[in-house]
Write a structure and sequence with these properties.
Number of helices of chain A: 11
Structural class of chain A: alpha/beta
Largest sheet of chain A: 6 strands, mixed
Structural class of chain B: mainly beta
Order of helices and strands of chain B: EEEHEEEEEEHH
Order of helices and strands of chain A: EHEEHHEHHEHEHHHHEH
Domain RNase H type-2 (chain A): 28-251
Function (chain A): Endonuclease that specifically degrades the RNA of RNA-DNA hybrids.
Number of strands of chain A: 7
Oligomer: heterodimer
InterPro entries (chain B): RNase_H2_subunit_C (IPR052863), RNase_H2_suC (IPR013924)
GO molecular function (chain A): metal ion binding; RNA binding; RNA-DNA hybrid ribonuclease activity
Shape of chain A: globular
Distance between the termini of chain B: 44 Å
Number of domains of chain B: 1
Largest sheet of chain B: 5 strands, mixed
Protein name (chain B): Ribonuclease H2 subunit C
Number of strands of chain B: 9
Strand content of chain A: 5-15%
Helix content of chain A: 25-40%
Strand order of the largest sheet of chain B: 2-9-6-5-4
Amino acid sequence: MALARSERDPAAAGPFGSAVPPLCRRRPCALGVDEAGRGPVLGPMVYGICYCPVEKMEELEALGVADSKTLSEAERERRFGLLEAAGDVLGWALHVLPPDHISACMQQRAKYNLNELSQDTAVGLIQFALDSGVQVAEVFVDTVGPAEKYEAKLRQRFPGLGVTVRPKADALFPVVSAASICAKVARDRAVKNWSFVEDLGDIDRDYGSGYPNDPKTKEWLRRNLEPVFGFPRLVRFSWGTARELLQRGGVPVKWADEDPAEDPTAPPSLLSYFARASPRRPPHRFFQERRLRPLAEL
Amino acid sequence: MAAGVKLLAAPGAVQPQLPAQLLPCRVLHDGPAPVAAFLRVQPGSGGELWASFRGRRLGGRELPLPPGYRGVLLREGEPPPGDEGDPQDQWVKVMGTFDVITEWGADAVPSPTAGVALALQWGPLACAIHAPVSDDSDEEAEP
């Protein structure tokens, strides 16, 4: 599970959304969930929801917001504009998961994998809509992992709601297509306007697509690899591509919980041959607990 | 037995105050690194600090050194010309000082009952143990 609320650092902000249209408070609504930026090694992953009254579904379809995967960035922006303009019947919300939050979740001691993180984020957004007063009646979700299991999990979590989880849901249900557009537009903007927290002067933004198999992206990673610190926080360190590049081009770093305490196959240090056979007596527990020992020379 | 550690003093030189960061990992590197550029610290809501290292979340706490103690960054040097001291002596130069250690824990702020905070207790305790006992102490042991 992610860090508890009280320990949560400022990097992981929560969901935010449009104003809830009054109609959505009064009439049963369909709500679609989709995400953007799951695969790339750079930038945030964004979860988006879009909801409108079930009886207004035709109006939503008429906006023509079908499958957004094949659209250009400019076209997606245009369609998002259409969604915003339909603010009397339609609402949206987003949760932006910063890349360093993804890295942290996947690398922390109590590992929190990408699927769990994704599903919990979706759940959080649905709850956010409910808490905001949306009369959610039906939920449509694009699947992460096996559909039946995910659907069962959501049904259990939201017993009063109709739940439909399908692969390629963004091509099947208008509310999911709309959610997909919201998520993708948010992701595009986040990457384009990325503000480097690192003080590195003028970093080039020639990332390519951001996907790990894009040669342009790989080149950017190689160009921006610092041996001690690795990459800027824009990069998902938990991604295989990033880890490999860091392994090859970075200095080794040993974490206490990742590396075994002693390598039994390593040859003993030369000094150990000159060590006292047995100590006169072990140090007092006070010093052992604090890992203090007398230092005779630097 | 160990020889002494001698200080190469540069008269009039002022040593810079350095930030001292204790990371919850071992970086197998000996040399300069762009710490200020990459280790960007953000304050949390409860006075704690947050940063990130190689994608791993770090929780930090500032630990002031106990009163009477000062941190120094030393660099090995050569004995001054004409020195006739013990050849086993180590000569060091003070490159910088620090009064605070920022201790970082992996994923979360280190527990106040562990790590360096605990070790720093030794300083004041040692002073108390080894301080001379006053002759005109008013205390009398209870029978």
